[in-house]
Amino acid sequence: MQLNEAAVGDHVTITHLNVSSDLLKKRLLALGCVEGCELCIKQKGFFSWSLYFRNKGAAH
Q: Which residues belong to any copy of the Ferrous iron transporter FeoA-like domain (predicted)?
């Protein structure tokens, strides 16, 4: 499943970050979004272009 396919309220775990933009990759890392990280989708923007989420951090 792609992250933009998740519904509001879904808890998802990032298994693979396939990001082609270096800037986006840096922003995601700054937010703590790494492989193994659990996210909860809180709100979606129009056309699923923007996602608002809560991050639980990477599981170790």
A: 1-54
Tell me the three state secondary structure of residue 3: helix
Instruction: Give the model confidence (pLDDT) of 13-37 as tens digits.
Output: 888 888 888 998 888 888 888 888 8
Could you tell me which residue, 3 or 10, shows the higher pLDDT? 10
Q: How many Å apart are CA 46 and CA 29, to the nearest integer?
A: 24
Query: What is the residue extent of each domain of the chain?
Result: 3-58
Return d(Cα 40, Cα 43) in angstroms, integer: 9
Fold exhibited by the domain 3-58: SH3 type barrels. (2.30.30)
Higher pLDDT pick, 60 / 35: 35
